[in-house]
Amino acid sequence: MTVETSKHRELGLTDSEFELIVEKLGREPNDVELAMFSLLWSEHCAYKHSRKLLRRLPTEGERVVMGPGENAGAVDVGSGYAVAFKVESHNHPSAVEPFQGAATGVGGILRDVFALGARPIAILDSLRFGELDSVRSRHLLDGAVRGIGHYGNSIGVATVGGEIYFEAPYEHNCLVNAMCVGLAKQEEMVRAAAAGVGNAVVLMGASTGRDGIGGASVLASAELGDGDEAKRPTVQIGDPFEESKVLECCLELLGKGLLVSLQDLGAAGLTSSAGEMASAGGVGIDIDVARVPLREADMEPFEIMVSESQERMLAVVEPPRVAEVLAVCEKWQTGSAEIGVVTDTGQVRVLRGEEVVGEMPVEALVDGCPLYDLSPAEPEGWIYGNRRTLDPGASAEETLLALLSSPSIASKRWAFEQYDSVVGSRTVRRPESADAAVLQLPEAGNAIAVSIDGNGRRVACDPYAGTIEAVLECAQNLACVGAEPLGLTNCLNFGNPEKPAGAWQLDRAVSGLADACEALGVPVVGGNVSLYNEGPDGPIYPTPVVGMVGELPDPGRACGGAFAREGDAIALLGPFAPSLAGSELAKLRGELTMGLPRSDVTAVAAACETVREAVRAGKLSSAHDVSDGGLACALAESAIAGGLGCRVDLSPLLNRGFSAEEALFGEGPGGFVLSGERAALEALAGDGIEVLVLGEVGGEIEIAGGEAFLAVGLDQAERAWTDISRAIAL
Amino acid sequence: MLWGVVQFPGSCDERDALHACSLLGEARMVWHEECDLAGVDAVVVPGGFSYGDYLRAGAIARFSPAMEAVAEFAAAGGPVLGICNGFQVLCEAGLLPGALLRNEDLRFTCRQLELLAAPFDRLTTPEGGQSIERLAIPAKHGEGRYYAPQEMLDQIEASGQVAYRYAPGQNPNGSLRDIAGVRNEAGNVLGLMPHPEHAVDPLTGSTDGLRVFEAVAAVRA
Question: Which ipTM did the prediction report?
Fold first, then answer.
């Protein structure tokens, strides 16, 4: 069988990549092999434009149980338990078909986590859409939120947190990143590496159909453009019921110690699962496509190998235990078939019965893809648009209300109420009740906190500083509930890395991520890269999304963000240096330009530690970090959540040279709004930690700042902040 | 007292229900293919999406072997509690009056809310208790709008079968007459949409859910 030379281009391979494949095989690949190479050598699977950069990230730490390279990362939470977690993107499928795209994004990340032997206990989502006044954005938002809810609710895993931003550059290319957190007994965890020549390869779960063929190469590794509707067949269809059965089945199998290794089938289906298991184990693998249970009888071998049908898992099983494994699958009414064997050939062989239809060295297929260097070049100035929606002459009150009602800042109740946040009986802090979600782990006698963050606009202003801020934001959110970071996962959502500006953003962002993690001492235990996120109007904002898991000894002491007691003092703690650069206010005024102030990571880390210890000691009534919309919004959010106003004076900030506007609405990392007894708050100062007592809890929202004086009724602020729930009426 | 929690493929809240039951006594899972409830003193049909809830919520589960056993158990006067999907299953099985339709706004809603436990309901009021009890319990469902024909509503109200109502202004789904939970005529089968098993720990919200389990346990006593 010979291959027409243009075929590889249709599949996304360059001419030189094709030549390299011919060289490695010593012949031209046949159709089956070409299809498999095109997927595993796609950006999505091979990370060919990002792998070199990712080597900068620190991945080691005392608490790391599993790091990058496994299905998900895992950290030790004590008492023999580990928490596994990972964030992954499903951007392009969601841009084409938001409901199924988002649903299967959740399904995929759940499988990554239970593939380790961890029971999924929480989901978080990081979503980006175009501005809400666009019909397309509302359609994508509605579909994605319903899709996430459909899958997570149906499978019984709590969706406990997340974030949603609305920015024009995501208009055509929305982002749907889903993070899953799971809990495992360390002794029951397995790795993905195939082992034991002669062991059986068992495919479990749903049957294999023609859905999602070419998803990784066609959809995930190219820019979106006209004719995307034609790509709809490359989007997979999710079935949470099937996944629920496979999940329970896999956990039972692992609990009984019946599996040697386990891997989920995600992008590139059997091709990548089998290839990666063989590669990790340094073995070969034979797959007989004739034994794969099919939805359609007439599927070609290449279709079976690349299908991205959902809810499937691949396991390696010792031959004497195969019958028992199949019996457990039967009990859970989920499909199972012995479809192959682990070999010592170092080859991935695809058979149809007796006939060999493909044979490739594992090394060439999985690890042979060339890795590319980027050609970064800093763009000259702001490459994204500006749109003025707020008159710069607006009063301080009008400005605060405009910020609170800006969809990115406003309450997300309308979204998270569509998610089951309580199943599992672990959720101690539900969405919007604290800066991070808190989940109790009675098994281990402690609790974890989880947060997911990433402000693409600020990263666009300065990819290095903006990415550092994303990590700091996460760390600050954990500190507010008294948690110490254990590990971090990330999803790098960027534009085309082959364009100099996109390459520059990616390069700078990865450096920022590496430096922030290094400074905080938080290892990166896993992640995902999603490139080519561009629409007809250009690239998305560069959007590194950071998910962090921390530990806290006593969930009962986790602070909420709401003011809790009339008369409590309110203080600003930390090295907060507010600036309008890259802020929500600069966006509303249409004044975005390049550049962000540099932050002092070490000082922020020290502030986090102080807040964490104060929360753990029960010294605070509330803790909330200063984020989008600045100090005024942070104060208003704590006030609205508590139903208690505040009377504060920002003079201490003005005395440091900040303008009233910067003090009110400026943004930047490092600031915490704390409430509690005045003496307790003041006692937190010292050793490089600044505490500015600004006022007290009570009344309406009154903020004085030099000549500026802002007074907004609590009701009025709440209406602004929640109006979107009504306005959105999806 | 031994509680049995029915586990279907697709159940979501069965482990939480088992935990809640274990706070009040012994508890074990009842696999959906089991048809022997020997030794079980009370049954919980938990929340989730039994058999994927294809066709209609609860429509497939009612035909499971375990549900046949539950129907016999109920007929013999045994206490049965259906929560959310369990409520839907019990309605599908004809063990409870009425039906659960899609929420009025056609969306899944998860919300902490308050229930009023009807004072005339002997399932929920201890002897002599006449004040209306308010229970803080989360609800989470996409198909929880209680519906029954007008005459049936009048009849179940008259016979004291309305066990729980959503507190004024807190009806999350458009349920007729704010009905959140009903019982059968004999009083031993209770179903409700909100989730008492998620309200048994002060850390996760409240312990008011225990009152519902206690009311079910009281049927047997």
Answer: 0.93
